Amino acid sequence: MTSTLQGITLKGSAELVAEFFSFGINSILYQRGIYPPESFSIVTHYDMSLQLTTDAKLKNYLTNVVSQLKEWLYECTVQRLVLVITCLETNEVLERWQFDVECDKLAKESSAPRQKSIKTIQDEIRSVIRQVTATVTFLPLLETPCAFDLLVYTDKDLVVPEKWEESGPQIISQSEEVRLRSFTTSIHKVNSMVAYKRTDSV
Amino acid sequence: MVTTRSSAHAQLFTSQRTAFEAVVIAPATDRDEVTNQRAAFRHLNCVTRRRNSNRVCDLSELTHCPREDGTVRLRERHSQHFEAGYAYHKCPNGKMAAEGQFFQLICSNKTPVKGKKQTPSKMGGDRFIPIRNSKQMDVASFLLTKENDPDQHSSAKAMSVNLNGYDLEDAKILHLGGKPLNAPEGYQNNLKVLYSQATTPASTKKTRYISTTPDKILDAPELRNDFYLNLIDWSSRNVLAVALHNGVYLWDANQGDVILLMKLEREEDYVCSVSWTKEGSYLAIGTSDCKIQLWDVENQKRLRSMASHTSRVSSLSWNDYILSSGSRSGLIHHHDVRTAQHHRFTLTAHSQEVCGLKWSPDGRYLASGGNDNLVCVWPRVSEGSAGSDNQPVRCWSEHQGAVKALAWCPWQPNILASGGGTSDRRIRIWNVNSGSCISSIDSQSQVSSLVFAPNYKELVSAHGYAHNNVVVWKYPSFTKTAELYGHSDRVLSVVLSPDNSSMATVAGDETIQIWKSFEEDPVKKKAMDRMVKPTTTGLHHSIR
C-alpha cells in the first residue's frame, strides 16, 4: 500500500482499486468453480482470508490485465470492468459481473491527497468481497465447463494498447440482476453488480 | 501475377453500420486474381470457404439469392448442389468465419456486369442489383458519408445504447486478446447442491404432513355404538370427556391420566350426550332417563340434575349460561342454569329425535338437525320475550338422511355445514343470512360428525357406513387433503383439541383415536397465541 497516513492520492487510489479487482476476480473464479479449487491458495488481505490462484498462466494473464487497469485508473479513462462467464461449448454467456468505476476527474488536476482513512476503505472492500462470496447461495449452479473473459469499458478515444482488442458487451438475454455493495476511495467509486441467466424454476 | 486492374478491381467495401462487415469482391479474371483477393481477405481476417473440392470459383459464377431476413446468399450458378454457397463474414472479435454464415449486402460493388477484361467504369450496373439509377447512387453515397442529423443521431444513439448496454460514443470495450484461458481439460466444477428447495426463496410454503396413523389410541370399552348419541367432547382445558355406557370418564390430555367422573345409578340407564362449558370447568351430561346432570369437574361434584324432557337427551350445546338440549321427542329445551327454574324455552320443529345441536360461535344462532332430515336455525331468544314466537329462522329439508353432523365455520360468520346420514351422504354448506345452500358434495359415506379446523381452513368429516373413515377437506374448495382410515367400525364423532392442532375420533370399534393433523409451525403459532384473548363468562359464580 503506497497510501500513507497523509491521505489518498490518485495513484494510491488507483492501486487500491486495482488490488481490489485482482482479489475480487480471484474470488469469483474460486467461488464459481471456473478453476479447480486446488489451484488456489489462501492469503490474508483486508483482514480476511482470500483465495489467490497459483496457476501460472492465469496469474500472468491477470497480472497483465490488472497492471493495465491500474494505468487506466490513474488516467481516469476506465469506466467499467466486466467479468463474463460463458459456457465453453455453446459460448453462451451465463454470468456477468460488472464493476462500474466512477472517477473523480478533479483529482487528476489537483495533486493534493484526499482525506479518507485506509481502514474505512478496507472495511468497505471487505464487505463487497464478502458479499461476492455470499452470492454463491443464490446464483444458479454452473453445470457445464466454463470459460471467463475480462472486458474493460474505456473512453472512446483511448489508444488501444498492443494485445488488446475490441469486443462486444456480451450481455445476457433474460437476466436477473443483483446489485451488490459499492465502495469508494473518495477518488474512485466502484459499484458492483452481478447478472445471471434466469433459470426457469417453479 | 498481379495486375493493376485487379488491385483496382478489388474493392473492399466495409460498412460500420452493422456488427458484421460485408465484403464484396470483384469478379476475378484468372486464378491469380483469386489468389490475390484471398490474400487481401486474409489480411482482413476473412476467409473464403470452398466447398467439396479445390475448385476455384469467382463471382461471375455466383448468383445472389436474397433471403427473407435481408441477407443475401451467394449461390453457384449452374450448380446441382443447391446448398453450395459462399459466404464472407468477419466476426467482431476477429475470429474466422464459419462456413455457411451469411453477410448483409450493404451496397453494391463496383464491378462491371460483363466481360473479363473490361475496365470498370463509374458506378453503374452491378451484378447484384442490375439496374441502378445513378441518381440514387449519388444520394446513397452522400447519405452514407455525411454527418448524421441531430435527431437521427439521438435515435441512433438510443438504439445503440439499448443494443450494446452502453453509449458507443463514450466508451469502447476492450479485452486482452490471445488464446482463451480455460481450466485444464476435463475439469468440471463439482460444486454440488447440498441443500436445495424446489421453490424460490420468496415463495416457500412448508409442506404439511398429515400422518395416516393416529398419534394415540385410547381404549373405550362398552361404548354405545349408537349413531344418534354425542358421546365425546374436548374441553378448553384439554380434558376429553367420554361417555362409556353409563359412566363418564375424563382423560387429561396433558397428563394422560384417566378419572371416572360419575356413573349412573341404574344399570339400564346410559349416558346419551356430554358437553363442556366454554371455560371447561363444568360438564353437562344428558342421560337416557330424560335428565341433564351438571357436574363441577374440579371438585368432582354434581351440581344439578335438571329434568324437563320426556325422552332421552341425545344432544347438548352451551351458549354462555344457556344450555340447549335436544331429545328423542323432537323438542329442544333452553335451560338457564343459573336459576332454579331452569327450563326457559321450548323449540318445536322436529318430529323425530334431535341428534345434532350446535350454537354458532357468536351465539346468535342455534342449529339443530334431526332424524326427520330437517336442519333448523333458531335465533337467540332474548330474556322476557314470549315463548310462542320461537320460530326457526331457517328450515332446510334438502338432506335425505338424519342430520347429526353440524358445524359452524369459526372464521366465516353465518356459514353452517351439515352432513346427512346413510341415505343422503352429502355435506352441505349453508349461508344462514341468505338461506341458500352454497355447496353440496357427495362424501360417499354416512356423515356422522363435522368440525371445522381453522389452522389450515379445513373441514373434517367423520364417516360411518361404508368407509368408516375421517376425511379432511380443504374449505371452500372441497379438495380432499387427507383420508384417514384408522377405525374398523363406523366413526361416531370427531372433536378438535382446544389448540386446534389435533382431533379425537370415537368409533364403534370401541377406540378413541387422537390424530395430530393440524400441527402448525411454531412461529405462526406464537403469533397466534399472542393474538388470542381469553374470554370468560361469569358462569362459575352463578350456578346454584
Describe this structure as you would to a colleague.
Chain A: This is Mitotic spindle assembly checkpoint protein MAD2A. Chain A: Residues 11-194 form the HORMA domain. Chain A: It comes from Knipowitschia caucasica (Caucasian dwarf goby). Chain A: Keywords: Cell cycle, Cell division, Mitosis, Nucleus. Chain A: It is found in: Nucleus. Chain B: Keywords: Repeat, WD repeat. The complex is a heterodimer of chains A (202) and B (544). Chain A is an alpha+beta fold and 202 residues long. Chain A has helices spanning 10-31, 56-75, 106-109, 118-134, and strands at 40-45, 48-53, 78-87, 93-103, 146-155, 164-166, 175-184, 188-197. In chain A, the strands form two sheets. In chain A, strands 5-3-4-8-7 form a five-stranded antiparallel sheet, covered by helices on one side. In chain A, strands 1-2 form a two-stranded antiparallel ribbon. In chain A, helix 1 (10-31) packs parallel to helix 4 (118-134). The longest helix of chain A is centred in the N-terminal third of the chain and has 22 residues, at 10-31. The relative contact order of chain A is 0.22. The mean pLDDT of chain A is 84. Chain B has 544 residues and is mainly β. Helix content of chain B is 11%, strand content 32%. Chain B has six helices and 32 strands. In chain B, strand 15 (322-327) and strand 16 form a beta hairpin. Residues 1-28, 43-62, 78-123 and 533-538 of chain B have low confidence and may be disordered. The chains are: A alpha+beta (202), B mainly beta (544). Chains A and B meet through helix 2, strand 3, strand 5 and strand 6 of A and strand 4 of B. Strand 5 of chain A pairs antiparallel with strand 4 of chain B.
